[in-house]
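User: Here's a protein and a ligand (ribulose-5-phosphate). What would the complex look like?
Assistant: Let me lay out the input and then the predicted complex.
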Amino acid sequence: MSDRPGEANVRMSAFSAEAMKRAAARAALESVTHGMRLGLGSGSTAAHFVDLLGARVREGLEVICVPTSERTRAQAESLGISLSTLDETPQLDLTVDGADEFDAALRLIKGGGGALLREKIVAAASTRMFVIADATKEVRTLGAFPLPVEIDRFGARSTMLHIERVARGLGLIGPLTMRDAEPGERFITDGGHYIVDCAFGAIDDADALAARLSAIPGVVDHGLFIGLATAIFIAGAEGVRILG
Ligand code: 5RP
C-alpha cells in the first residue's frame, strides 16, 4: 500500500503496470452477462476493459453501454460496442471504471483524466460500480493524489478561493492548480468546465470535505466518490484480489 503518488509505480515496469490493469479489467469482465446495461469508465485501466469487452461483443455478447467520456465513446464505437445515453437508458446494471486512489472503505479519488462529472453521474445511475485498479492505487488515507474539482468557468478564481477557505476550515492546506491541457491552454472537460487540482495531502475526513465542496457555488462536482463503488478489483503481483 502506497502513501505517496507514483512511489510504487516507479518500481513497477510500464509493461507489468499495463498487464495488471488488464488483469483487473479481465476479472471484472467475468461479471458481465448477456443483456446488461453497462457504464463504461474513462482512463487507461477502463480502456483495457472496453477493449476486452469489444472482443466479447465480436464473439456475440449483447450489451448496451453508456460511455463516461468522449474518448471512451470513440473507443467503444470503433470496437462495434452498442452505445446509448442516460436519457435513453437512465438505469444501468453495472459501471466499470478506474480510479486514481482508493481506500479500504471503498472511497475513491477520481478525475485524473478529467472525466469525473460524467463518471459520477453514470456510477450513480448504476446498481453496481466495479473499480478496476492496480495495487499502487491503494492508500491508507486518501489525498496523496491531488483531488480534482470540476468548476464552472464563470468566476473560477473566486470559486478557487472559496475551495481554499472551505479546505482550510478542515485543516487542509495545499496548493490549488488550475489544470492545463498544455502550457498556456486550459484543460476543458467534456462538460465545458475547468478542473482545479487540490494538493491537500492526507484527507482525514473525506466525507466532510465532500459535503462542503458540493455546497460551494461554482463547484460542479469533485473527485471524491463516496458510497458509489461496490467492489474494487485490485491487480497485484499475486493476481487479482476483490475488495467489497
Ligand atoms: C478519469 C478517471 C480515471 O479513472 C482515473 O484517472 C484512473 O485512470 P488510469 O486508469 O489511467 O490510471 O478518474 O477521470
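Summary: Residues 3-11 have pLDDT under 50 and may be disordered.
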